[in-house]
Amino acid sequence: MQSDLESVIDDAWQRAQNVPGYIGEREFRALCLLAAGAPGQGLIVEIGSFKGKSTIGLATVAAHYGLGPVVSIDPHTAPSVTDPMLGSQTSSFDDFMANLRRAKIEQHVEVHREQSSDVAATWNHRPIRLLWIDGDHTYTGAKLDFDLFSPYLADGAIIAFHDTLFAFEGPIRVFVEEVLRSDRFGPAAFFHSIAWAQYRPKDGARFRAERERLARPAAKLIPFVTGDRRLKGLRKLRFKVRRVLVPHKVLSPAEWNANVAPLLG
């Protein structure tokens, strides 16, 4: 891990902190950590950009370390179930582009104002080092994004899902069923509501026990959010109790260096 990462993340947060969005500071810093710490080769791909808060973080890290452009995929249409802050706006695109320009990071972002399925159709096998899935949070939508882009993960790449510990079926179910219970993946964890794992198709099986220890408490959240039902009353309280039992501490760069980086290779 780069010795100056803390200052790079600080710089990214300064650029992005006033941009409207659904990612808080702890998760923002965790995402930047994953972007810098992913040892695989290839591009950083973001599915779901809204007004550019996470995009600015990813692009700041990518620009500083020479990781190439961040591929941003979002149709920027409204209304959207996961983007209620658009209000009466018909699109988040103008704000998105203005925020990139304000952060002086526009030239480091490859913008696709399209559905992820349309981008995948012309992807041309470019390898991915970090796949950040934060688009359609339904099970069908999250599973489609996973199915479309996970085949392009480079060995050692990191895949990450947003909002896995909130009341959405897609992110948590896809992460548990397709990632934690697959020997194609190795080290894995939750950082607040971000769930991530490393793509290890050659030796993921040796991390099976660790993944299963994480999958057991995480899987108990799925029945509460199946069908994206609203949580209320006693069900909401039970969900919160179950969620506390899922380890989800956000690591600092120093803690990542000491405890995670050696596992990633």
Report on this model:
This protein is of the alpha/beta class and 265 residues long. The chain has a single domain (5-259), classed as 3-Layer(aba) Sandwich (Rossmann fold). It is built from 12 helices and 7 strands. The chain has helices spanning 5-16, 25-37, 53-65, 93-102, 116-121, 139-149, 169-180, 208-219, 222-225, 233-244, 253-259, 261-264, and strands at residues 43-47, 70-73, 109-112, 128-133, 153-161, 185-191, 194-199. Helix 6 (139-149) links the parallel strand 4 (128-133) and strand 5. The longest helix is centred in the N-terminal third of the chain and has 13 residues, at 25-37. The protein is globular, with a radius of gyration of 17 Å.
Summarize the structure.
The chain is an alpha/beta fold.
CATH class type: Alpha Beta
* Total separate domains: 1
**Mean pLDDT metric:** 94
Q: Any guess at the CATH architecture?
A: 3-Layer(aba) Sandwich
- The coarse overall form would be globular
Please give the order of strands in the largest beta sheet. Answer: 3-2-1-4-5-7-6
What is the third-level CATH name, the topology?
A: Rossmann fold
Cα-based radius of gyration, to the nearest Å: 17 Å
Number of strands: 7
**Which H/E pattern describes the elements?**
HHEHEHEHEHEHEEHHHHH
User: Given the structure, what is the number of helices?
Assistant: 12
Proportion in helices: 40-55%
Q: Give the CATH H-level superfamily.
A: Vaccinia Virus protein VP39
Low-confidence stretches are none
Tell me the strand percentage band.
15-25%
The description of the largest β-sheet is: 7 strands, mixed
**Estimated structural class:** alpha/beta
N/C terminus separation = 11 Å
